[in-house]
Design a protein that fits this description.
This protein is α+β, with helices and mostly antiparallel strands. About 35% of the residues lie in helices and about 25% in strands. Bound molecules: 6-O-phosphono-alpha-D-fructofuranose.
């Protein structure tokens, strides 16, 4: 550990660039039991992110804007860039040889990855390849969300649904890519959260945010105010409380962007259940679990609006949804008090 601390200090002092690949290899060396396949998987996610980033950045120029016409599993209009991002991540992950299956927002069923040596492919990946894609046409930041599980089914055959329907607590890695003013890859493997900024001049993700810890308090709340009258009483009372305290409302409509802000400035992100979405809108497997993993690793709290810990939620189907309230510990604690006071909490 001492050498690691000295090394980190030296890197900071001499402003040494640490690329994502170097960081992953170093983390692997610090974990004697790791076989290297997990590292290769993480590096492949980085490669796919760079490919998608290239297209996202020129979406306005190349004719891949505009609605593809189809709709995805939750009825959202599918943008062409959605399809491109989905295809690139599936292609890259399938080629890696480390993945036996992929579940994506864009695909109703999970995608078994064929390989002549399935015994090597020990992981499955769950993802929202381009979250917030309705913002693409108006040049607002969008993101990729991913989570990684170890497969549970026997490794001499194809992946099974049990490999994907695992609680958030079983996730071995989670992260997001934010295609914004700069492109960042932020991920955790359960030992803290680190952020890497893409340096286009060298085509590398470089360590830029070491061991991210979010503020335990905050004064930003992030919710779609347009649904206010459709929220349960306890949520409306908590939102009134935020407004009474002159907290600032920030809602980009792109979960990755809203959560990324909270990682650095603190705050709470709410997507409560409504009459339209009685179980919430956001997808438990590839939006809520990965973001909850990251938020907890960065010192925050992630609950449903009925006060269940998101990571412990049982999952029964790939596109199952959940309400969510996550962010700075003190703000989620305040929200909890309002739910206990005004709500009908599941005991
Ligand atoms: P609404 C984007 O479609 C998304 O899945 C999240 O990125 C975002 O937080 C949410 O839905 C926005 O939903 O109903 O407020 O437009």
């Amino acid at each position: 550990v001492k050498t690691g601390v000295l090394r980190d200090l030296r890197e900071k002092m001499f402003n040494k660039i640490v690329t994502l690949d170097e960081f992953i290899i170093r983390s692997e060396k610090e974990n004697p039991s790791s076989s290297g396949s997990f590292s290769r998987l993480l590096r492949d996610i980085g490669i796919a992110a760079k490919i998608v980033n290239r297209e996202v950045n020129k979406a306005g120029l190349v004719n891949i804007l505009g609605v593809e016409g189809s709709t995805n599993s939750t009825g959202d209009d599918v943008q062409k860039l959605d399809i491109f991002a989905n295809e690139k991540f599936i292609e890259t992950l399938s080629y890696s040889g480390e993945v036996c299956g992929i579940a994506s927002e864009e695909n109703q069923e999970f995608i078994p990855v064929k390989s002549n040596d399935t015994s090597k492919a020990q992981y499955v990946v769950v993802m929202d390849p381009l979250d917030g894609s309705s913002n693409i046409d108006v040049n607002v930041s969008v993101g990729t969300i991913f989570g990684v599980y170890k497969r549970k089914s026997p490794d001499n055959g194809p992946c099974k649904s049990e490999d994907f329907l695992q609680k958030g607590t079983e996730m071995v890695a989670a992260g997001y890519v934010l295609y914004g003013t700069s492109t960042l890859l932020v991920y955790t493997t359960g030992n803290g959260v680190n952020g890497f900024t893409l340096d286009p001049s060298i085509g590398e993700f470089c360590l830029s945010h070491r061991n991210i810890q979010m503020p335990k308090a905050g004064n930003y709340y992030s919710v779609n105010q347009g649904y206010y009258l459709k929220f349960d009483l306890e949520m409306r009372r908590y939102i009134d409380h935020c407004s009474d305290l002159n907290y600032r409302l920030r809602y980009i409509g792109s979960m990755v962007s809203d959560i990324h802000r909270i990682m650095f400035q603190g705050g709470i992100f709410l997507y409560p259940n409504t009459r339209k979405y009685p179980k919430g809108k956001l997808r438990l497997l590839y939006e809520c679990y990965p973001m909850a993993f990251l938020i907890e690793q960065a010192g925050g709290t992630a609950m449903t609006c009925k006060l269940e810990r998101v990571m412990e939620m049982e999952i029964h189907s790939l596109h199952q949804t959940s309400s969510i309230a996550m962010g700075s510990r003190d703000m989620v604690r305040d929200m909890k008090e309002f739910v206990e006071k005004y709500g009908t909490v599941i005991k």
